[in-house]
């Protein structure tokens, strides 16, 4: 490995307490509460023991629905992210606290203040994952109602981030300076409510995959979450694309951290790891969930079928996308169904087995040593800067990673052995906030 | 029965009730200061602390401070002030329900309105004139959302692969004059079902309120009534009068005011027990007056049987003697 492009690269871990979707197992005896404050504390403190950079919460502003009915198969119902993270600030010392918060159904003065509050309460550990839900279906929960097409929601998101940073930066060494924002989406006039935190202002995260989403990250974000973390070539292609976009945006190509979301399943031997993965998949993809996944492919309700039986014989339909979760969203259902049929016939798989093998995929399975080797390669070849890990069990799902995998990574010199800074920006090794650099530093 | 006489609330926002109180601000880092003040109030035996706010205020928002305090305390009731004028009721409902989960049932909500033009400009909204209509509709929506998950909606039924019983989840379908909200909430029903709702007298229809805050010493038409009292206490260093004089003019805010010795306040509050259900005390300078309250006033009231310390594990509703409501959407409640 002499031509390793990033020989000194290290890995950054985050933990994503999901609170929704079928990846979190709720049926096992060890599945704990999704709401008890002790569950959040346990996960955050375990991650901190494992020297993670960040604890991360997602957001969904309407309960998921399938065919106009509340989706009842998966974990659902979670606390408000910034509120929960403010509580965790009181019971953790070092770990970053990242809130997914929407730019469509919030206002800059309010959200900037809430995030600053979290940043100050945590002494500089706050992050903001900027998301941009666009659908009228979510809008039905808000005064402002459903609005914004794809282009407008990106314009609003961009102007929102600019406004939030103006508010954060508006408290200077001379105290608060009046901030006025006039843009296509906003007309604001206020005194910044809070001084700067130990890290200047919150770290900006972005989870998005479209070309606009990637460019948005390249212009504004410090960290990008992606879904490109399972396959090395796919991860590397994504990272190279992001580096290209960063250069185009006039930023150094090491200015953004790439942390794909992933699941990690660990066993003492490869065989044990595979067996555990098999157990995890069967818990995640229950018979009803398998029928739901197949329904998303076929484009109509299959909940009355037998998951242990064969695939449906009907042709798929192209269903309308209403924006609700579970709207039939497979891009080319005919091709997917052809593949499912071929593989199911070749392996003699039931519908459920096919859904497990060919449905949404994720994650890494192995021994601590084999995973550490693999992740070291990911890091040193520039495919990722780390992973945002989604535990499949709450609250103990991180224990194996912290007690078994982290030491292997430390032995390989690819993972920190102690926190060296106090803020989230320190942990991630980031420069000063984008809006707070002098021109020389920005160009370097 | 719970109510021994008088429930004791203390307002712990900022530096104190006097506009010049910040001159004596504590230099501790903000997170340590919030934690320290909450610990003093809890250890003294206060029933609850309120955390004042206004969206265009400087300072950390009341929701964030309340959540932080909830995680750092174990018996104190925690009641953030949250405005209803420009905020999204859906967010407000989620934030407050989350504090009730975090505190395992010790949270309340002090409903407020934003009348300042400054707030409208910060939010980039036209000035709302009918702030009472917004307060009424937003409070109704927040309360409906708190009921939109029945208590046992999470069923974890392995036999049918169902995590939720969707029949125990309810769209609220609120339609008001200025906005509508579909529901259900994204946060499951919280430990108290409904947080304890506090409101200043005459802001809301009484049926939406659990505790009225008033400058009167007589009961309002809500289950409980607390009297608002600003307090300036004598300290070993200076008399109450000297302390006020040193800070300069102290504008009236339509609250009762007491300036004097700790013993005098104990006597005043002992007299008030029975006339009203509680008091909310606003210390002149938080650091200084909260210290006297916690060392002298609250212990004397507890010793005298006028007030009682919250019982560990009790919800704020239980401490206040309020029942835990069944969800209004639950079949058995209809
Ligand atoms: C790893 C990951 C996590 C995400 N988490 C959330 C979330 O919690 N809430 C949300 O509204 N959107 C979430 N998203 C969705 C993104 O914000 C974005 O809307 C979506 O990826 C579409 O982006 P695009 O417009 O760039 O295609 C997530 C996306 C990714 C890749």
Automatic annotation (TrEMBL), chain A:
Residues 29-383 form the Luciferase-like domain. It is an enzyme of class 1 (oxidoreductase). InterPro entries: Diverse_substr_monoxygenases, Luciferase-like_dom, Luciferase-like_sf, NTA_MOA. Keywords: Flavoprotein, FMN, Monooxygenase, Oxidoreductase. The keyword Flavoprotein applies. Its EC number is 1.14.-.-. Pfam families: Bac_luciferase. The keyword Plastid does not apply. GO terms for molecular function: monooxygenase activity. PANTHER family: ALKANESULFONATE MONOOXYGENASE-RELATED (PTHR30011), C2H2 FINGER DOMAIN TRANSCRIPTION FACTOR (EUROFUNG)-RELATED (PTHR30011:SF16). NCBIfam families: FMN_nitrolo. Belongs to the NtaA/SnaA/DszA monooxygenase family. This is NtaA/DmoA family FMN-dependent monooxygenase. It comes from Kutzneria chonburiensis. The lineage of its organism: Bacteria, Bacillati, Actinomycetota, Actinomycetes, Pseudonocardiales.
From TrEMBL, chain B:
Pfam families: Bac_luciferase. It comes from the Bacteria. Keywords: Flavoprotein, FMN, Monooxygenase, Oxidoreductase. SUPFAM superfamilies: Bacterial luciferase-like. Residues 29-199 form the Luciferase-like domain. Transmembrane segments: none annotated. The keyword Calcium does not apply. Gene3D superfamilies: Luciferase-like domain (3.20.20.30). The keyword Methyltransferase does not apply. PANTHER family: ALKANESULFONATE MONOOXYGENASE-RELATED, C2H2 FINGER DOMAIN TRANSCRIPTION FACTOR (EUROFUNG)-RELATED. This is LLM class flavin-dependent oxidoreductase. The lineage of its organism: Bacteria, Bacillati, Actinomycetota, Actinomycetes, Pseudonocardiales.
